[in-house]
Amino acid sequence: MRTTRRVALGVATLAVLAGCGVVPAMPGGMPEDFVPEVEAPQLADPGALSPDGVDAAEQMAVRIRNVGCGQLTTGSGFALDERTVITNRHVVADADRLQVTTYDGREIDAVSAGVTDVADLALLRTAEPLTTVPGLAPVDAAVGDEITVVGYPRGGQLTTAAGSVLGYELDTLGSDLGMVGRSNAQVDHGSSGSAVLGSDGQVVGVVYAMDVWGNSYMVPVSTLHDLLAEEAFEPITSCRDTAGD
Q1: Which residue ranges run through the membrane (predicted)?
Q2: 3-state DSSP helix/strand/coil percent for the chain, to nearest 5?
Q3: pLDDT at position 9, please?
Q4: What residue ranges do the domains of the chain occupy?
């Protein structure tokens, strides 16, 4: 979840925002005191991931800084390929500048961003290459499968959270997502956009919400596959361009 969001009663708690246009190139330096210094990843609970899977999870996860018009928020994401990052639509909403930070401390500008109207997903293109990662699973995880969430809760250091898939149900946010996955992996504000990994380290979903009972919700990888195939990501507009609307 973006770190400025608050948990509300109900199943899921995140607002859904969208726009159109292109995020401008990032000028100037970023604040240095908002995000903690990079520390050793806290991967004490890797779930069913192998040591190689843990290493790949470290490398694929990114922290996303959204510098908006009057606020700075953080979220999580993951590298789909060398220059593409997947995250949530609400993580990039109301942005003026976007930047990703890798597990080893590299700060990389996002040169463009696109979102979908039918799911809480966003796609960023980066100015520099990212580390190659295992990629997307071909099908959704089955109920009962062990999963591991990897991301940057509260904009802090890289962490993992293990759990299992509890089931699939209709999206309760009314975001036209269709069926979404629910797991007992613990997430927090700033975890939105985190990769949900199967035991082989491939992505089986994207975290987009949590509830007050400690459950996390994910966009299934099948939905991501469909939207990528349809090229359904439309460019977003800088908050500066909409400020006068």
Answers
A1: none
A2: 10, 35, 50
A3: 29
A4: 61-133+227-242
DSSP state of 42: B
Query: What is the DSSP-derived secondary structure letter of residue 154?
Result: G
Q: Are strands 203-210 and 61-68 parallel, antiparallel or unpaired?
A: unpaired
d(CA 105, CA 112) in angstroms, rounded, equals 21
C-alpha angle 112-61-186 in degrees, rounded to nearest 5 = 120
Phi/psi of residue 138, nearest 5 degrees: -70, -25
Please give the span between the terminal C-alpha atoms of the chain, in angstroms, as a whole number: 26
Each residue of 97-130: pLDDT tens digit?
Answer: 999 999 889 999 999 999 998 889 999 999 999 9
Task: Classify 98 as helix, strand or coil.
Answer: strand
Q: Which amino acid is at 95?
A: A
DSSP 6: -
CA atoms within 13 A on the CB side of 177: 30
Homologous superfamily (CATH) of 61-133+227-242 is Trypsin-like serine proteases (2.40.10.10)
pTM over 0.90: no
Q: Do residues 237 and 24 touch, judged by C-beta distance below 8 A?
A: no
Kindly state the percentage of the chain with pLDDT values over 90: 56
Give the model confidence (pLDDT) of 52-101 as tens digits: 778 888 899 999 999 988 889 999 999 999 999 999 999 999 999 999 99
Residue 148 pairs with which residues in a beta bridge? Answer: 162, 197
